[in-house]
Amino acid sequence: MAAKRLLVELYYDVVSPYSYFGFEALCRYRQPWDMDLKLKPIYLGGIMKAANNKPPLMVPNRGLYMVKDLSRLSKYYQVPFKIPEEFVEWVSTKSTINSQRFLCALEIHSPEHVEATTRAFYERIFGQNKEIMSFECLPEVAKAAKVPQDVIDKCVKAVNSEEVKAALIKYTDEAIALKAFGAPTIVAHIAGKKQMYFGQDRLLLLAHEAGKPWLGPLAEAKL
């Protein structure tokens, strides 16, 4: 009997820099881990509120460390990255509800474009240092991800639909039920059980418990 494929679920918000590295790493490990990766957009603000948590940049000393940490991770994962100068203002005054709902709309209407659009959101905010919170930026991001225009139009129109709102609430509530307190929250289905991991730096533990190889941040280069 063939071995069962590993299922990993990534609960993420495109405003989370650590989720960016976790997302890219998991995408690289599909083949080495014989893995199905399920992307689950969540509303990070709801997770933080439910867990009574604070964004790292809201804690001064942690924020100072975070800037250095992300620079190191950018080199380690070989993912171009820069924190926008307006980042603290954006996360303090704006919401990613539009971007997260747009990803949910894509999952409903054209799931094959979720991964590329997720990457386009990350590249926009942490590469081009442009905001990703406004409704107006959604078509631009989707075009950068090469989503067909008819799909863009359908998903933009669906952002405020009850179906899409319910999808985002469902994934956010799932994460809260798992006792998530931030992003990325990663769930691996191992031996019939759900194992939760927080942070992109716990992937080596996931690999160990799933009996999979850990090949560092550039798995594809070592195949």
Quick structural overview:
50% of the residues lie in helices and 12% in strands. It is α+β, with helices and mostly antiparallel strands and 223 residues long. A hairpin with a 2-residue loop joins β3 (185-190) and β4 (193-198).
Notes on the protein architecture:
The chain contains 10 helices and 4 strands; from the N terminus they run E-H-E-H-H-H-H-H-H-H-H-E-E-H. It is an alpha+beta fold and 223 residues long. It has a single domain, classed as Glutaredoxin. A 4-stranded mixed beta sheet has the order 2-1-3-4, with helices on both faces. Strand 1, helix 1 and strand 2 form a beta-alpha-beta unit. Helix 1 runs parallel beside helix 3 and helix 5 runs antiparallel to helix 6. It is globular and about 45 Å long. The relative contact order is 0.20. The mean pLDDT is 94. InterPro entries: DSBA-like_thioredoxin_dom, GST_Kappa/NadH, HCCAis_GSTk, Thioredoxin-like_sf. Keywords: Transferase.
